[in-house]
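Subgroup meeting minutes
Present: P.N., E.W., G.H.
Scribe: E.W.

1. P.N. recapped why we're keeping a running log of single-chain structure predictions: easier to compare across weeks, and new members can see raw inputs and outputs side by side.
2. G.H. added today's entry (246 aa).
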Amino acid sequence: MHLLKAMVLLSVLFETASSSDAAVICTKLQPVGGSPSGYQSRGNRCEGLYIADVGSDTIRLASLTFGRLSYDLRRGTLLFVTAPGQREAVNIRAVALPPNTYYRMDAVLSPERPLSWPVADVLLPEGLLDSRIGIFGWKGSESDKTLVPLMISTGGPLRQRGVPTLTVQTSFDPQRVKWRWGIAEGLKCSALTAWRDATSITVKADSPIGINLSQLTPGVRCVEIAAEPERRDWAKVRFRVEMPPR
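Output recorded in log:
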């Protein structure tokens, strides 16, 4: 994988203690100097700009939420992140959707209370509108994720869920993108449905491609996505998703 040296907007929380008011332990990153957006501790998370080597995946996860992420980019806006149906801690990650905008926010969501996420620290000064950000949650390790859909609101926890939507991006211009789902049995998938279109027209690389997961029943499910590059074999990826009770 080709690596390029990039200035990355990053918000990282890798470790917390077990309580909901746990202190944040941040990894050692090289912050961008001379900017108030430089990487630093910001209470319940670490957030800011830092220098890193960044690569790209063929098909990459961008977001998994109930409804769309929506917020006003103004000082005082506070986002609340929850994971419906979850009774254990959930890892949270937000990423930038436009190409060459390397933003990331990592945190740990406690089951006892929502994660509060102010836009004033990095999103506002960097002009990162809600249309430019995706967010998802997962349980398990970085290399063995079970994704969980998130809910994000600006006026306290939401009571009503929106449509569960999985968003992916490709590093190439896909001619078609298809998906299917089935029952997750460990690392395997069984009883997969027929392929259905996510998009049947060519889209540009890095364009967000949304997939409506309303058909998925509660429980741990497999979601397989296939994208067709021009004159090449299909690229495929599988995600394990835990859908909460309805």
